[in-house]
Amino acid sequence: MTTPRSDATSHGRFNLEQQRKRAKELLKAARADDPDALVRILRHIPPRETPLRLTDTQFVIARECGFPSWPRLKAHIESLDVSRRLAADRGDRDMATLHIRCGSDIEHTLRTAGFIGDFLEFSDPFCIGPLRDLPPNELLRLRAGFLAEVSGMAERDALARLRKSYETLNGLDRYERVVLWFEHDSYDQLLLAFLLHHLHANTPTARIELVAVEAIPGVERFIGIGQLAPDLLAWLWRQRRSVEVPLLELGTQAWAALTAERPEPLEALVNTGTPALPMMGKALERHLQELPEPDTGLGLTERLTLEIVRDHGPLPVGKAFSYLMREYEPLPYLGDLMFWWLIQPLVTAPQPALDITDTHLEWPHRRLALMDLGREVLAGRRNWLAYAPGARWVGGIRI
């Protein structure tokens, strides 16, 4: 039996009256000996002789929502309500504010929550493609050339798109406060490392603050800030922290390691646990897992993709991506287009690991099937590096 879930387990917003109603309905069903209700209760409360009370089913509802107790669930909902009111009343209106995020996913949600500051999307996906510790204009051209190759757009268009966000970083002194909104995955954390490095080298007069998120109470599978309801952004706003020198220094250390031509600097940094921001160390460790495994020659995304097609295929590319994000990837970070680009060598090599059909359809609907070579590589009997076309990059490391 599947435990009933509220939508709040994905967007994080809970309604106290709704949860009270659910607890009363569960108690009524249990007293009527409804088998599903009894199974739900026994999952959290051992059998006993005393009659069930409302406090018991409230405890069950709280556990199903991801909280250890009903008082903890209630306190969290009350905190969300306070945060919502404060954001509506004051928001970020006390200072001229710039919000920086690695995408546009929370721009509208911030407005809905009551924030009026400027918004900068800084979304150069450093988790794929080459990185070098270059002056900004040279880095900009390196990344624009790569993104043009990935997206199919003209390089001048890719350059224009990136230049706007890079140039905004040079005009931060018009703001009194800059707030960085980033979660725990390698897409976000690599960008955060660059931004912290930039701010370390070019310290603005603005106050720098950080919202760094790796889990949200009650959210069953937290992937990103963009999935959250406006009240949750208001709640996170109250938990933002000032960016101090140790965190700026970590950004510079991480950027130097990410752009190095060998993995040892990154491995050494990961081994420190990155105490100024532990989630960055975890993301950098995941980034290192894109390096080829000794036996198979596969990066982790490549290996997981072959395993998904082995376990569930043949299946559409979009479905494979869904399995990756929901079940296989330990630290989800890819967008769908990045995933499509990353698996290209597996399907376009002279001897491919994956077969792809229905090529007249849009790419999410094309079907993947595992080739014999893919099975051999997964088993460690062949090494993919002997078959993969061209070169790829993991940060500064060319493979």
Automatic annotation (TrEMBL):
InterPro entries named among the record's database cross-references: DUF1835 (IPR014973)
Domain called DUF1835: residue spans: 98-202
Highest taxon above the source species: Bacteria
Protein name per its UniProtKB record: DUF1835 domain-containing protein
